Amino acid sequence: MRLRMTVRTALLMVAVFGLGGIATHAADPPQVPYPSGWRSWTHMKTMAITSDQHPLFAAFGGIHHIYVNSVGLKAAKSGGPYPDGSVLVFDLLEWTESGGAYTEGARKLIGVMHKDSKKYKATGGWGFEGFKAGDPKERLVTDPVNQCYNCHSAQKEKDFVFSQYRQ
């Protein structure tokens, strides 16, 4: 009888510690997939941040092109809310100015917002990621809440999206 209790206790300990490991792993934010084919999606708008007078110049100075996939296009045009499966891409490029013309330079990053209300519940239903220089292997977001969501939460009434579709 005592041996049976020891085995049961051992099995219980393995189950508890095993589940603890799973729970810790589950707490990691889910990864946002790299958006293949995004350059053929609908272009929402372009803007440029070209001066340190803008508060986001240090992080996001450059030329911005915003794209939306077909799932999110209707919501982009109406101002949201976006359905699950919507993906927005923020293509950030270096810029140069010469002779009064601004031209694109090297790609700085590709920012991605991926809508999945269950998977990304902690960040308003959106997954956030940045890919350095557009490289799918070079992820930049380590803390989606503090690096992305806290700023995007100011746009809650627009489903956390800053960029509006340009008609």
Notes on the structure:
With 167 residues, this protein is α+β, with helices and mostly antiparallel strands. It folds into two domains: 1-29; 38-158, Cytochrome P460 (Chalcone isomerase, 3-Layer(bba) Sandwich), CATH 3.50.70. The protein contains four helices and five strands, in the order αβαβαβββα. Strand 3 (87-98) and strand 4 form a beta hairpin. The termini are far apart. Residues 1-26 have low confidence and may be disordered.
Q: In which order are the strands of the major sheet placed?
A: 1-2-3-4-5
Q: CATH homologous superfamily of the largest domain?
A: Cytochrome P460
Number of helical elements: 4
Rg from alpha-carbon coordinates: 21 Å
SSE arrangement, N to C: HEHEHEEEH
- CATH topology descriptor of the largest domain: Chalcone isomerase
What structural class do helix, strand and pairing data support?
alpha+beta
Residue share in β-strands: 25-35%
**Main pleated-sheet profile:** 5 strands, antiparallel
| CATH C-level label of the largest domain | Alpha Beta
CATH architectural category of the largest domain: 3-Layer(bba) Sandwich
The beta-strand count equals: 5
Q: Name the shape in a single word.
A: globular
Number of domains: 2
Q: Cα distance, first to last residue?
A: 77 Å
Please supply descriptive tags for the structure shown above.
167 residues, Chalcone isomerase, 2 domains, 5 strands, 26% helix, 29% strand, globular
Furnish the topology, listing elements before pairings.
Elements: H1 2-26, E1 42-49, H2 57-60, E2 62-68, H3 73-78, E3 87-98, E4 101-115, E5 126-132, H4 144-152
Antiparallel strand pairs: 1-2, 2-3, 3-4, 4-5
